[in-house]
Amino acid sequence: MLGKYTHRGTCRICGSKNVIKFLELGQTPLANRFLCKEDLTEDEPYYPLDVYYCTECGLVQLLDVVPSEEIFNEDYAYFTGASEPMRGHFSGIADDAQQHLPITEDTLVVDIGCNDGTLLEYFSRTGAGLLGVDPAVNTLQVAAQKGITTIPEFFDENCALKLRDEFGKADIITATNVLAHNPDLNGFVKGISLFMAEKGMLIVEVPYIKNMIQNVEFDSCYHEHYSYFAVRPLTYLFSKYGMGIADIREVPVHGGTLRIFVRRGKEESEVVNKMLTRERELGLDVIGTYIDFGKKVKLLKEKLNTILKELKDKNKKITGYGATAKGNTLLNYCKISTDILDFITDTTPFKQGKYTPGMHIPIFSEEKFHEEPPDCALLLAWNYVNEILEKEREYRERGGKFILPIPEPRVV
Ligand code: DWN
């Protein structure tokens, strides 16, 4: 069944009509809508998953827009704290913030898209006032249980004004993996400009399109990620609201991420100019780069399916490792179902006992991986490859293999 969505014909940052489709991933269900057993007989909503490039401002984006309330509600399946490596990463953000702006008991730190409060926990050691904003109320409850003041709302201009009236202006606003999740980028950044203190700082993290292109991370595309960022469209977006990138760096999480420090004033720092030059050198501002990427995605699908078929022909038992949202793009696009994967294991209690959207593969806790080890595990959480290969050293020493799907499918 086709779900409810709207199609927009223009770029969501600059409004240009020059938006060109370069990747078609077919129709897929929502990547984080895991199913209970009783849902399996119901008709599942599917939505087109096509990716476009704006030749004016350079934003990569989806134009088929699923309403955000369909995605972020009381059933949101991603809990940051379930992935151990993210803890160290978030601790690093709090330290980095301190380097850029002294944090005292008078500082108000607001985390937009705070999920289960993992990031704010690291700010709590500074004594600052903490506020978490997130429309996904089930994850937000976990943040509230940690003593964090929580606001169950989707951040936009109206929400910004309400928060400003109630709590005053924010000194530090964090938004990690949030910008991509907001279909109204202009409304979001305008809201920040209304809510942020004069000398305040916004810290944004977004997966970097450079890495997505270089490592063929096509599975990062799904409906809750409305946009995919290079530095160029971001500088333009912030400058529209009187802000500029004061500092920026690349950090390794989620397959390659940009950590960006934004302040009032339009002056861009030297490091930003260097990154813009490098983006031009890599061809991130030409459509041909994206068309080539689309071709690589098709080849990846063929190669992965060939590897899986060869293993099945040899009667090998295969399971999936990590019931990730991106994994659901990969499984649905490559049509990998229960005839290939017996089950998937995941550390998130909310996902265990459920089934993946579309392919309906059952999900179990990690214990099952150790109790019934497969011959091969398809690593759907490839962004934690080093940590997981290390964690599953014993399985590998006993002959267990992993299939890494990107940048080119291979068995290790
Ligand atoms: O932006 C988004 C990112 C940040 O997180 C979202 N829209 C949704 C989500 O995407 P994802 O599900 O692809 O993210 P992760 O972080 O790759 O998910 C990892 C999953 O794997 C979690 O469900 C936990 C699980 N896991 C596991 O089973 N064993 C993780 C590790 C590290 C493990 O050892």
Describe the model.
The protein is α/β, with parallel strands linked by helices. Helix content is 34%, strand content 23%. It contains 14 helices and 19 strands. The protein has helices spanning 68-71, 84-100, 118-124, 137-145, 157-167, 185-195, 209-214, 231-240, 270-281, 287-313, 325-334, 366-371, 385-391, 393-397; strands at 6-7, 19-28, 47-54, 60-61, 64-65, 108-112, 129-133, 149-151, 170-176, 196-207, 227-228, 243-251, 257-264, 318-321, 341-345, 363-364, 376-379, 401-404, 410-411. A seven-stranded mixed beta sheet has the order 8-7-6-9-10-13-12, sandwiched between helices. Strands 16-15-14-17-18-19 form a six-stranded mixed beta sheet. Strand 12 (243-251) and strand 13 (257-264) form a beta hairpin. The longest helix has 27 residues, at 287-313. The protein is globular, with a radius of gyration of 21 Å. The model has no long low-confidence stretch (mean pLDDT 96). The chain binds ligand DWN. Ligand DWN binds next to helix 2, helix 11 and helix 13.
Quick structural summary:
This protein is of the alpha/beta class.
Which sequence of strands runs across the widest sheet? 8-7-6-9-10-13-12
Distance between the termini: 38 Å
Beta fraction of the residues?
Answer: 15-25%
Number of helices: 14
Bound molecules: ligand DWN
Give the tally of β-strands: 19
Average per-residue pLDDT, rounded, comes to: 96
Which structural category do the helix and sheet elements fall into? alpha/beta
Uncertain regions spanning at least 5 consecutive residues: none
Shape: globular
Q: Rg, please? A: 21 Å
Relative helix content: 25-40%
Characterize the biggest β-sheet: 7 strands, mixed
